[in-house]
Amino acid sequence: MVKSNYIIELTNISKSFGDKTVLDDVSLSVKKGEFITILGPSGCGKTTLLRLLAGFNTASEGEIRIGGEVMTNIPPHKRPVNTVFQRYALFPNYNVFDNIAFGLKLRGVERKQIESRVKRALKTVGMTDYEHRDVNSLSGGQQQRVAIARAIVNQPQVLLLDEPLAALDLKMRKDMQMELKEMHRSLGITFLYVTHDQEEALTLSDRIVVMSEGRIQQIGTPTDIYNEPCNSFVADFIGESNILNATMVRDRLVRFMDKEFECVDEGFGENAPVDVVIRPEDIYIISQTSSAMFTGTVRSCTFKGVHYEMFVDTPDGYEIMIQDYNPFEVGQQVGMIVKPSDIHVMRKERVCNTFEGEMIDSSHVEMLGEKFECATVQGVQAGEKVSVEVDFGHVELTDDAEDGTAVGTIRFILYKGDRYHLTVRTDGGENIYVDTHDVWEDLDEVGIKISPDHIRVKPLK
Q: What are the per-10-residue average pLDDT scores of the chain (461 residues)?
């Protein structure tokens, strides 16, 4: 039998709470000694995944292996992992030494070894001579160091860290990031780190796992994730981006903002709908418009400490974000240049809304859990399953949820230069995608209306 080089192996993991699916067919392999960060917005399933590894929850489907051993029936205290939580969970009536030694005492480790291992753990986290201090007298950063020491003193194969720096202020958080990176290097054990902070993930990780809605979107090095995002969600979530609708004319030629640009991407086909990502630091802004690839008017210019962040409005109605070391005045006419290698082309995740529905009669279809009027469909019987298509721009959202045929909540907002692309989660748990010029807020409750003429019904094949 070949020994695996992976310390963690997750295979087709799914987890549901009632009828809500939190993790959907997640597979991940982690090498020994890696620093892996699971990154995503609140509610994407990252903490649930960590809890499954720790043994606090059980997967609905799939298999978890740690160190080559199946963990299905292994209780939390017998797994070769330790967890550091966002809330430090220290014992207030114990001093620093006793907090760190607690797990060793439970396991019956002899006293001399406990003392030696606790002192070594304190040295690792930079808290030598703190062993007799009351934990309530420590700062937040010091308490977090004690929590980490309590985890590593047990010599786990894997250290699970669930947003451990979220409660610290900005400066202390950045200091602790560097210390965590050094701890990882010196300890040589596997770190699995959960955060929603993109900068933290880019700073700490060997590889990043980007998650959304219970699924892994992309796995890669920080450089790969930033420079080569696989879809618009990853591009928007990792750093600042200009994300635009585009058409791949042919290999190495893409059209967006009503202009054609040379690029380096191939293999998308001809006249294929795609998305384009241009990072704001990759756009060159110049005062001479005659030699520019496209032009615009500076609408805002804000100093960000290292660079200036500017928003430029083009004559065609697009808004472009630019980061540059030199400021340009608001109202100034400017030119912009982008190199072919800085235009990143991505396949579109979808080109329209597609649902499975059921015909109620020849002019009404049930979808999204509601009854919608549609154009009359010939040759389809009541009760027959059908495929329903609706273009993104033909979905209307209303402030008053009761005005809509269906009700939903805005879950994700993606700005695409001249419009917003919204993900709306219906009360029935399905997503509908909307293109709009209106400004909405995340978690707004909305009504959903679709004109009958814009609902395309086809028999299921």
A: 77 92 95 95 91 93 94 89 80 89 86 90 86 86 85 88 83 84 88 92 95 95 94 92 96 96 96 96 94 95 95 96 96 97 94 94 93 89 93 96 93 94 92 96 95 92 72
**Mapped to the 3 state alphabet, what secondary structure does the chain carry?**
CCCCCEEEEEEEEEEEECCEEEEEEEEEEEECCCEEEEECCCCCCHHHHHHHHHCCCCCCEEEEEECCEECCCCCHHHCCEEEECCCCCCCCCCEHHHHHHHHHHHCCCCHHHHHHHHHHHHHHCCCCCCCCCEHHHCCHHHHHHHHHHHHHCCCCCEEEEECCCCCCCHHHHHHHHHHHHHHHHHHCCEEEEEECCHHHHHHHCCEEEEEECCEEEEEECHHHHHHCCCCHHHHHHCCCCEEEEEEEEECCEEEECCEEEECCCCCCCCCEEEEEEECHHHEEEECCCCCCCEEEEEEEEEECCCCEEEEEECCCCCEEEEEECCCCCCCCEEEEEECHHHCEEEECCCCCEEEEEEEEECCEEEECCEEEECCCCCCCCCCCEEEEEECHHHEEEECCHHHCCEEEEEEEEEECCCCEEEEEEECCCCEEEEEECCCCCCCCEEEEEECHHHCEEEECC
CA dihedral sign of residues 67, 196, 428, 245: negative
Question: What global pTM score does this model have?
Answer: 0.87
Q: Rounded CA gap, 61 and 79, in Å?
A: 19
Domains in the chain (CATH in brackets) are: 6-227 (3.40.50.300), 232-347 (2.40.50.140), 353-459 (2.40.50.140)
Give yes or no for a contact between 226 and 215, defined as CB atoms under 8 angstroms apart.
no
CA distance 89 to 164: 11
Residue type, 364: H
Count other C-beta atoms under 10 Å from residue 111's C-beta: 10
Give CA separation, 18 vs 23, 42, 100, 344, 351, in Å.
13, 19, 37, 40, 32
Which neighbouring-strand residues pair with 431? 425
Report the candidate in 89, 162, 97, 85 with the shortest Cα–Cα distance to residue 130: 97
Strands 207-212 vs 35-39: parallel, antiparallel or unpaired? parallel
- For the chain, the first-to-last Cα distance in angstroms comes to 45
Task: Give the pLDDT of residue 1.
Answer: 41
Calculate ∠ Cα 317-320-323, nearest 5°: 160
Encoded tokens for 173: 């958080």
